[in-house]
């Protein structure tokens, strides 16, 4: 079904994502083109031109909006933000100060980040970090001869008792039991 310019205009001012991919609109005064779902400020109607494809908009000299990224086939800002946060956690999980600085650099509020983690992963950022640390500890328990204290410190836990508490909570056994259980399974193979 072909959409009239007025239908396209209504979809654009309503930020209607159901029209994404069906058309794009360019703003003559800025030289930028957007998806219908873009949350940018609504332009004046007489400043808008419509395109069937992103390529048409670019050929006409418009550049993609940095907010809605109409140049990408699929744009999921929440997923991209989540992946960015997870990459930072994966790199700086043992250094709380650096971790905080890196996450602060993303410009996302604490409440927004908590909400994003709940929506995307069903847990808080702190729960994710602790789970990540325990997964790293499990790897080290299985693949190294390091002491449990050494593993706890390598994984960013400040004390052995904290490490044991989180390990028991998330794995339902102590690190020592986990290591012994795995060693027995290895011997059977």
UniProtKB/TrEMBL annotation:
Keywords on record: Activator, DNA damage, DNA repair, DNA-binding, Metal-binding, Methyltransferase, Transcription, Transcription regulation, Transferase, Zinc
UniProt protein name: Helix-turn-helix domain-containing protein
Cofactor: Zn(2+)
Domain HTH araC/xylS-type: 83-181
Pfam families according to UniProt: Ada_Zn_binding (PF02805), HTH_18 (PF12833)
UniProt xrefs under InterPro entries: Ada-like_dom_sf, Ada_DNA_repair_Zn-bd, Homeodomain-like_sf, HTH_AraC, HTH_AraC-typ_CS, Me-P-triester_DNA_alkyl-Trfase, Tscrpt_reg_AraC-type_HTH
Taxonomy of the source species: Bacteria, Bacillati, Bacillota, Tissierellia, Tissierellales
């Amino acid at each position: 079904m072909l959409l009239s310019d007025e239908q396209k205009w209504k979809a654009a001012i309503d930020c209607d994502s159901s029209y994404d991919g069906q058309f794009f609109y360019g703003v003559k005064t800025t030289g930028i083109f957007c998806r219908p779902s873009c949350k940018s400020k609504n332009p004046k109607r007489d400043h808008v031109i419509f395109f069937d494809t992103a390529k048409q908009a670019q050929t006409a000299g418009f550049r993609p909006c940095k907010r809605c990224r109409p140049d990408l086939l699929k744009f999921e800002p929440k997923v991209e933000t989540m992946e960015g946060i997870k990459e930072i956690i994966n790199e700086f999980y043992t250094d709380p100060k650096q971790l905080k600085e890196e996450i602060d650099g993303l410009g996302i509020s604490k409440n927004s980040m908590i909400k994003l983690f709940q929506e995307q992963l069903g847990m808080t950022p702190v729960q994710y970090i602790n789970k990540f640390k325990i997964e790293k500890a499990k790897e080290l328990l299985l693949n190294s001869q390091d002491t449990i204290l050494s593993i706890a410190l390598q994984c960013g836990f400040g004390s052995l008792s904290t490490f044991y508490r989180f390990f028991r909570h998330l794995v339902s056994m102590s690190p020592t039991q986990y290591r012994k259980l795995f060693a027995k399974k290895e011997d059977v193979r």
